[in-house]
Amino acid sequence: MTELGVEQLAHVYPEGDVRALDGVDLHIAAGERVALIGQNGSGKTTLVRHLNGLLRPTSGRVLIDDTDAARLTVAQLATRVGLVFQDPDRQIFAGSVRAEVEFGPRNIGRSAGELRNAVEVALEATGLAGEERTNPYDLGGSRRKLLALASVLAMRTPVLVLDEPTTGQDARGVERVRSAVDAVTDEGRTVIAISHDMRFVAEAFDRVVVLRDGRVVLDGPPDVVFGPAAWEVLASTYLEPPLAAVVGERLGAGSTPTDASLVAALGSWSAPPEGDDPGDEDHQHA
Fold this sequence. Notes:
By secondary structure, this protein is of the alpha/beta class. It has 12 helices and 10 strands. A 6-stranded mixed beta sheet has the order 6-7-8-3-9-10, with helices on both faces. The protein is globular.
């Protein structure tokens, strides 16, 4: 499986001389599930687009299994890193759902048997089985987003990158995305996701990397990144921990509580008896 390395990566956009990345260092092991979070403009999308060659470093380098990505073509990188765009309409172009999902694996040379199986699994995973002949633009926006996911899932790349995968999804759609993340990492492949959905991040990922102004300011498991000691840094990136983290911390259930642990903590908590409230006591003495 594929390991990723980012060494002192910097990227300056010529338009406006914008320094989007400023010396980022990361190592992502094979099979990790990593979420990238930060305010808009913090460098998240710029970072992931270096992983598949859509952008090239101004300085520093990206390593794919110890090979400098600068030495690989975009076509070569596409066999290793699959990227699902935030806007599916920038990715979808075929006239039918099946043609869309078939394109990626066919383009990277999958055999007929591999292609057929990969397409069926991807359609089933995203809830699009039975829609093979449908024109993608007859699907709603949330289902087109799932179609874009299916088209990259079918490529079965060692690394899957998702840009805001839960945006516009209802609870069922979010669960499909989460199940896809589970399935990919269960096979030892890597998932990297950009997300503003802090609950999804806390529940579905083992590692959270926080970017601010093109630099990494936090990197750790969700219970650390969303714990009280990190709240000030999160606030500096205009992010808040998920509500469950705040409530869980107040109730002693930890920063990434499960529904069950929250219910248990709530069950053991009771309000102060009437009359124990200092305000009531002051009122009585007034």
